Task: structure prediction
Amino acid sequence: MRLVLCDDHRLFTDALVVSLVDRGQSVIACVTDPNEAVRVVSRRHVDICLMDVHFPDGDSYWAVRAVLEAAPAARVVMLSADCDHSVIAAALAAGATGFVLKRASVDVILEVLQRVHAGELVVRVGGPLTRLSSTSARRLDRRFPEPLTDREREVVRRLVLGQATETMAKEMGIRYSTARTHIQNVLGKLGVHSKLEAVALAVNCGIVSVQTPQRQSMSA
Result:
């Protein structure tokens, strides 16, 4: 794979570059600014851009869209120290097809990259990988044998926002047990086994929409 790394923590990226190269990967560039990542992918063939979510001047969701606009064949995997569902959902909504925690081992990061390169949507925040075919995921909403009710869509939206079951029940004015039942119904209808899988599928199917900041490049 031909990779671009974008993260302002140089000790982290320098170590990651060495490890990925040792494992046979080609690191085209290692940059600290999302603007530079966009410039690189617009000028050179890149398979995957591995990009941190957070930078000193804000998040990089805007840069995901810019990378994909500059190089439609490329894919973006986002790195973060934060495994909040809302962060994952925003990354996927921006167009990323992979998400992995920065504290993951190099072998786990490489597996995520390889799966994404193979055409899967992959989220790894601990435990088994959450994997979905990125092509089929975008179409699944039309094939659900049991459409989600309005209340279940509200539950999905709150899962995407990272709400705990207790908070969800309180804000929706329902019992905790009722909220749990709604969540289980949602998981069953979506054909997934965890809240994280539901979040990934919901965002990529367009079951719910996630707004991410629309920021323009700061450089000329």
Q: What stands out?
A: Residues 133-143, 216-220 have pLDDT under 50 and may be disordered. The chain has ten helices and nine strands. The radius of gyration is 18 Å.
